Amino acid sequence: MTDVALSGSPVVLRAHGYEAAIASVGASLRSLQHEGRDLVVPFATDELRPNYRGTTLAPWPNRVVDGTHRFGGEELQLALTEPDRGHALHGLLSWTDWDIVDAADDEATLTATVPAQAGYPWWVEVRTTFRLGADGLTQTVRATNLSAAPAPWGTGPHPYLVAGDGALDEWTLALPADTVLEVTPDRLVPTGLASVASDADRFDFREPRVLGAVEIDHAYTDLVRDADGRATVVVTSPAGTGVQISWDGECPWVQIHTADLPAGPGTPGHRAGLAVEPMTCAPDALNADRYDYDAGLIVLAPGASHEAGWTISVR
After folding, report:
1. Which residue among 185, 224, 295, 302 is buried most deeply as judged by most CB within 10 Å?
2. How many angstroms separate the CA atoms of 121 and 276, rounded?
């Protein structure tokens, strides 16, 4: 018998005051620290990863409503991996044991292949690289369509950011987004876009302010970007410590989740961090034709590739 850690094979990167631990199951960011301070909610090497914490989402982020979609004239049914809501959640590689193909002190690359299967009849090769630099931890995800037919594609990360000591309710959020995707309260099915000003107390963080008791599990778009075309979300603690995640135009959406769990306070992980998930496409993007806005679904031609990336750094 071989003693295999529940999170798979470990890789640890160290450089520029950062330490990042990568787990091969789901190509997951297991922990990220700067000078010993957590920047994301961690989990242990020999711990079954809590839900989707830190995983790489592919070939779609977020959910496919009812697990059904239509592509190339064919009606397709995915396995329902979010049974309580009846959706297909966060792609097909989150519980795959990725291959570690290269590892150095400051960089590691993992690969996995989405096999053609019921609901997603395409072969897509996925390659992700984690690199530590003076600017923090950058992850890139590159997908290549190995099939003879076009394939729908989307990706994103799932980190839970940690501003510092204290409760999430005391942290300050800066979120430069003008528009929020409204959803049904029970199943989080998209219903349409709205200005964040339509429910400013809950959704508008264009000017940094304390999160308080607000509960959010929504996607945002119409992101305000800097001169280099990057959007940045920042979370800071009352003590002034903080963390940020930034990304370029390949991700026009970002999901924000205050990590509220159904069982509420006292449940491990409840409001332990703020999930900030840059996404190449909107929730339910595989059903883009259902909506009157651009869901951002990428269609990979045979042999074509797409790459996106994001950077987490200390503040």
Report:
1. 295
2. 30
Quickly count: other Cβ atoms within 10 Å of residue 280's Cβ: 26
pLDDT average, residue stretch 26-33: 98
DSSP symbol at 301: P
CA distance 267 to 102: 37
Task: Pull the structure tokens for residue 62.
Answer: 């977020």
Render pLDDT for 130-144 as a digit per residue (tens, 0 to 9). Answer: 999 999 999 999 999
Rounded to a whole number, what is the distance in angstroms from the first to the last CA of the chain? Answer: 45
**Is pLDDT above 90 for 204?**
yes
Q: How many CB atoms lie within 10 A of CB 301?
A: 11
Residue 288 backbone dihedrals phi, psi, to 5 degrees: -55, -30
The candidate with the shortest Cα–Cα distance to 312, out of 19, 4, 11, is: 19
**Alpha carbon distance 89, 198 (integer Å):** 28
E strand or H helix at 255: strand 253-257
DSSP class of 201: H
Q: How confident is the model at residue 2 (pLDDT cuts 50, 70, 90)?
A: low
Two tokens, residue 240: 């002034």
Contact 130, 108 (CB under 8 A): yes
Q: How many whole angstroms from its chain centre is CA 221? A: 15
Q: Give the C-alpha separation, 275 to 259, whole Å.
A: 7
DSSP bridge pairs for 234:
174, 244
